[in-house]
Amino acid sequence: MIRISTANQFETGIRTLQQRQSELNAAQQQMTSGKRIARPSDDPANAARAERARAAEARATADQRAIDASRASMAQVEAAFGDAGELVQQARALMVAAGNASYGASERLSIAQQIAGIRNQLLAVANRGDGVGGYLLGGQGTSGAPFVDTLGGVTYVATGGASQTASGEPLPLAADGRVALLAARSGNGVFETAAATANGSAWIDAGRVTDPSQLTGLPYSVQFSVGGSGTTYSVLRNGAATTATNVPYVSGQAIQIDGMSFTVSGAPANGDNFTVTPSSADLSIFDTLDRAAAALRNASLGPGGIHQAVADGLRDFDAGTAQIDRARSAAGAWLQRLDSVESRVASRKLQAQTERSSAEDLDMVHAISDFQLKQTGYDAALKAYSMVQRLSLFNYIDP
């Protein structure tokens, strides 16, 4: 026969009560926090799963901050290029006015001063800060302003390219100002016409391509001769004579050779020379403004020189504007792309949150039912213990 002491019954009852109470407290904590995993030991596999999801969510949050920073920068870059384009258009309008035949040296000097002022405004736009210690057009970074005004003109001292965010998908934080403002294609984009400094009263236009397949990429010169038989011109290709030799000159009549067409107007003097060279991608909008202002300051410039200065200025302003517009379009394209990137990041973040919730969140309906069951078990254990407490020999001894 097994003997069970009263003390053993008490200890067993107390252990049962403590266990039931611990289970009830754990259920209460889960319901309060809404999580079924309070510590990794509760469910190691799902705890690790939740941690991986939490890390993915943190990465998505960091990527969202990178998107916000890039969007703010690109919006400012796009606005800066917009301001730059407007300034160049103002200079172009002034250059058109400078071609007015009724204007004298004083009027052209006034226009030159206005163009110089626009040039300084454009330099300020080019060195515009991003509000956080950097420069919008500073490329991959610089310790100071990216554009420096030197005796030889404005130069770019920053590192080319564009700084980017250190996120899952690199996003731009600045633009390459050199490409936008100092690297337009000269001339008409294929070849560049120019007049010799000592020319008389004739001028040459920007020209155009008539047949791309005939282009040679070689330099040309057009030399004029004035004699008893009238004015003629000869076209030399890389210094060698061509079939266009001693051709009678007619002002405004197109000269065509090797897929190119350009027009010389006015009255050339004997020995006047014009050149046609391949375009290069080094046209600076600042140099264009400087040349235009310098030409208009020259009081000794004759009608032909004024026509040439205006024609060259308008051509180069148009090329510079086109380059700035391309840079502005690129910034706008990035702003559109950022919307797509943000959508993908939001999807990743939602997926991570769903995964984390699935791993650690509590099923409240099941939790309430489990809590009620544990509470019933605790009450039953409490009643059983109270009954055991009355199992004493003294309760059965008559007083």
Describe the structure in your own words.
This protein is of the alpha+beta class and 399 residues long. It has two domains: 204 residues, Up-down Bundle (f41 fragment of flagellin, N-terminal domain); 88 residues, no CATH class. The protein is 52% helix and 14% strand. The chain has seven helices and twelve strands. Helix 2 runs antiparallel to helix 6 and helix 5 packs antiparallel against helix 6. The protein is elongated and about 140 Å long. The model has no long low-confidence stretch (mean pLDDT 84).
Write the layout of secondary structure elements.
Layout: H1 6-33, H2 44-98, H3 105-126, E1 147-150, E2 153-156, H4 177-182, E3 191-195, E4 201-204, E5 208-209, E6 220-227, E7 230-237, E8 240-241, E9 247-248, E10 254-257, E11 260-267, E12 273-278, H5 285-297, H6 303-360, H7 364-389
Antiparallel strand pairs: 1-2, 3-12, 4-11, 5-11, 6-7, 6-12, 7-8, 7-9, 10-11
CATH class bucket of the largest domain: Mainly Alpha
Total DSSP helices: 7
Order of helices and strands: HHHEEHEEEEEEEEEEHHH
The CATH superfamily of the largest domain bears the name: f41 fragment of flagellin, N-terminal domain
Key words describing this protein structure:
399 residues; 6-stranded antiparallel beta sheet; alpha+beta; 12 strands; 2 domains; f41 fragment of flagellin, N-terminal domain; elongated
Short structural description:
The chain is an alpha+beta fold and 399 residues long. The chain has 2 domains: 61-186 and 283-360, f41 fragment of flagellin, N-terminal domain, CATH 1.20.1330; 192-279, no CATH class. 52% of the residues lie in helices and 14% in strands.
